[in-house]
Design a protein that fits this description.
The structure holds two protein chains of two kinds.
Chain A (H helix, E strand, L loop, with lengths): L1 E10 L2 E11 L4 E5 L6 H9 L5 E9 L2 E2 L5 H6 L2 E4 L6 E5 H15 L7 H14 L10 E2 L5 H15 L3 E5 L7 H14 L5 E6 L4 H4 L4 E6 L2 E6 L1 H10 L14
Parallel strand pairs in A: 3-10, 3-11, 6-9, 9-10
Antiparallel strand pairs in A: 1-2, 1-4, 4-5, 7-8, 11-12
Chain B lengths: L20 H12 L46 E6 L2 E2 L12 E5 L5 H10 L10 H9 L4 E5 L9 E8 L4 E3 L2 E6 L4 E11 L4 E11 L4 E8 L5 E11 L4 E9 L3 E10 L5 E10 L4 E10 L5 E10 L4 E10 L7 E10 L5 E10 L5 E9 L3 H8 L5 H17 L5 H18 L4
Parallel strand pairs in B: 1-5, 4-7, 5-8, 6-9, 7-9, 8-10, 9-11, 10-12, 11-13, 12-14, 13-15, 14-16, 15-17, 16-18, 17-19, 18-20
Antiparallel strand pairs in B: 1-2, 3-4
Helix pairs in contact in B: 1-2, 1-3, 4-5, 5-6
């Protein structure tokens, strides 16, 4: 489904990604782990199409089509979804209006009829229950005044509504207490499907206790330095990144 | 050196003579005081950014004929009074005869009523700061006098539609005077519209005189055509414990100027002024507001937002004057601005003069652009760039639009704003 070949990217002239290679097939769940500053978030942002990052080499294809040529909104319509590490607050745009506009943009792209306000409200209420968000949140500004956990649940709610082909979760576990982590994980597990892939980016392995990955990759210095199965994450938890010869400036958890 | 420009004498001759004698006399007296009135230049402080948009020609001095067209009958959820070119059109107006509330055109006033009105007209305004209100005083052909007796409550909003109909150059001088008795209440909507592409001047004055405890909501929608040069002034006098709330929504044009002056003269008076302005193309809009805290324990709260696209120009000048005896005043002024293109210009200037020592006074002004992070977030959900721009721009003013208390007006404003944004972002 997703194929990344020798991807290089920089921000403000500084090279962050230094040749990433990764293949993800439909139905798989991959986890990318690595210390702070290794390029994990950059990879997520680059895949979603953030223009603040400059692609300096390599290629990325989604189901055979060149992804890097597409603007952000078209990538989203082709099925790329990024759950943000820091979801943006947009006062003045209601969550409901935002979600309906997004869902209808996708439906239009697929040649389906747009949903009217009443139909969408019904759907949104159902999905908000799935991530344990009070439907009252729908009326508020996008992420406005939401707690960290509420913001993350709102991200997962968006993924459930938009039904992407590839969901990229950037540090979705950060800032969550154990109950919120459980809710978010249930949401992500509900996303798991044969025709969908999930890419989780995380510093810590605790999320992987709840969402069990098929493959684990270690990113360091802008490259994938080791790949393995589920057991690689456990080993990292036990031994830290130092075991791989990687310096991790943040080892608190 | 070139002599300073003055108002052409052509502007000193009103057309109609249908007003009652005391108002004709007042008009004449005001006209004679206007001989050689200096026109604002860029050296005139309160017209610094706007004088270049003012283009008066002698043929614009002609009063636009008032006869004929009443305009399409608008579906309005309330009472309505329709004016064409500053003159009331009774057959297009619909309002009931209510206890304690009188709504009359100036032309219909008795000599005694006209006499007492002539003593009040202009009393709410500082003409030094609103020079063109004087021109209106010399030129008005008609007007609307609304008097609320103590305790009277108008049960529905009153819409005053001021339409300018012009096939050729000319001018119109709409005038409204509201006398709100103690504890009376009403919501008044002024809507300014125009038909025809001729270069015209619309020079308006609206006055509100609030007695103790009166509660007035004023909504002003400026939706005139591109060619109209609109210079309007609103004066508000507030007695003890009265409350005034204003919502101005304005679309730019060749020249748009609104002066809003509020004097808090009785203790415990409250005023709230909201304003939204959008400009595009080469349009202009200039809001000058002035709040005088004369008495103690008064509150003012002011929020204005400007959005300027293309090569347009928006101006906000907010003055707050806290007089020496106005202890325990609370004044809050906030102006935020959004520049959508590099060629657009926004000028904002707070002016605070504080002569009392025990006051709470806050002000803030910002000028910014659409937030790239928010834009990325929206498009990353498949929302198109144009739609994302519209959403974010609307978000910038939604807070104010949502506060407009009359649903029909709020919806009209929203529709027009949506059209504006669709147009503004059509090339994205």
């Amino acid at each position: 489904m997703l194929s990344i070949k020798n991807l290089h990217a920089s921000v403000e002239g500084k090279e962050i990604l230094k040749g990433i290679n990764l293949e993800i097939k439909a139905g798989e769940v991959h986890a990318i782990m690595g210390p702070n500053g290794s390029g994990k978030s950059t990879l997520s942002q680059v895949l979603a199409g953030n223009e603040a990052f400059e692609i300096t080499g390599g290629e990325v294809t989604l189901n055979g089509d060149n992804l890097l040529d597409l603007p952000t909104e078209e990538r989203a319509r082709e099925g790329i979804f990024l759950a943000f590490q820091y979801p943006v607050e947009i006062p003045g745009v209601s969550n409901l209006q935002f979600l309906r506009t997004a869902v209808n943009a996708m439906r239009k792209h697929r040649g389906e009829e747009e949903m009217n306000a009443a139909e969408f409200m019904k759907l949104a209420k159902e999905v908000s229950k799935q991530v344990d968000l009070d439907p009252a949140f729908l009326k508020r500004g996008v992420n406005e005044g939401f707690s960290g956990g509420e913001k993350k649940r709102n991200e997962i709610m968006q993924a459930l509504l938009l039904q992407p082909k590839l969901a990229i979760l950037d540090e979705t576990d950060s800032g969550l207490d154990i109950d919120a982590l459980q809710v978010v994980s249930n949401g992500v597990n509900a996303l798991r499907a044969e025709d969908r892939a999930i890419l989780m980016v995380t510093h810590y392995q605790r999320l992987l206790n709840h969402i069990v990955p098929d493959y684990v990759h270690v990113l360091a210095g802008g490259k994938i330095v080791k790949s393995g199965g589920r057991e690689l994450a456990l080993e990292l938890e036990e031994r830290g990144y130092g075991w791989l010869g990687i310096k991790d400036e943040d080892t608190s958890n | 050196m070139k002599p300073a420009p003055t108002l052409s004498s052509a502007f000193l001759h009103p057309a109609g003579q249908t007003l009652p004698e005391p108002l004709l006399a007042l008009r004449k007296q005001r006209a004679s005081a206007l001989v050689d009135m200096p026109l604002p230049t860029r050296k005139t402080e309160n017209w610094k950014y706007s004088s270049k948009y003012l283009k008066l020609s002698d043929d614009m001095a002609i009063s636009l004929p008032a006869e004929g067209k009443a305009g399409a009958s608008l579906a309005i959820p309330g009472y309505k009074v329709v004016f064409t070119n500053g003159v009331m059109i009774p057959e297009a107006s619909e309002y009931p005869d209510l206890d304690g509330i009188s709504i009359q055109s100036f032309s219909d006033l008795s000599a005694d009523e006209a006499q007492s009105l002539s003593l009040q007209l202009g009393s709410t305004l500082n003409h030094e700061q609103a020079q063109f209100a004087r021109v209106n005083g010399a030129r008005f052909e008609d007007g609307l006098l609304i008097r609320l007796k103590p305790g009277a409550v108008l049960d529905q909003p009153l819409f005053i539609i001021h339409n300018t109909e012009a096939d050729a150059s000319g001018s119109a001088y709409p005038r409204i005077y509201v006398e709100a008795g103690a504890n009376s209440q009403m919501t008044l909507v002024e809507e300014y519209t125009s038909n025809g592409g001729a270069a015209v001047l619309v020079n308006t004055v609206t006055e509100f005189n609030l007695a103790d405890g009166a509660n007035i909501t004023s909504i002003r929608l400026n939706m005139e055509g591109e060619q109209v040069q609109h210079i309007g002034a609103t004066g508000v006098l507030q007695a003890q414990s009265s409350r005034f709330e204003s919502h101005c929504v304005g679309f730019g044009g060749q020249l748009r100027r609104h002066d809003l002056q509020v004097r808090l003269e009785g203790e415990g008076a409250e005023t709230k002024l909201n304003g939204v302005v959008v400009t595009q193309g080469k349009q202009h809009y200039d809001n000058h507001t002035s709040i005088d805290h004369v008495a103690a324990h008064c509150t003012s709260e002011e929020t204005y937002r400007n959005i300027a696209a293309d090569q347009s120009h928006a101006i906000f000048n907010g003055r707050i004057h806290i007089h020496q005896d106005a202890q325990k005043s609370s004044a809050d002024m906030n102006n935020k601005n959004l520049l959508l293109n590099n060629g657009a210009e926004i000028d904002t200037k707070p002016e605070l003069e504080i002569y009392a020592d025990d006051v709470k006074c806050a002000h803030g002004a910002t000028i910014g652009q659409l937030d790239e992070t928010s834009l990325f977030y929206l498009v990353s959900r498949g929302i198109g760039r144009r739609e994302a721009n519209v959403l974010l721009t609307m978000a910038f003013i939604n807070e104010l639009v949502n506060q407009i208390p009359v649903q029909a007006v709020r919806e009209t404003a929203q529709l027009r704003l949506n059209d504006f944004f669709e147009q503004t972002f059509q090339e994205i």
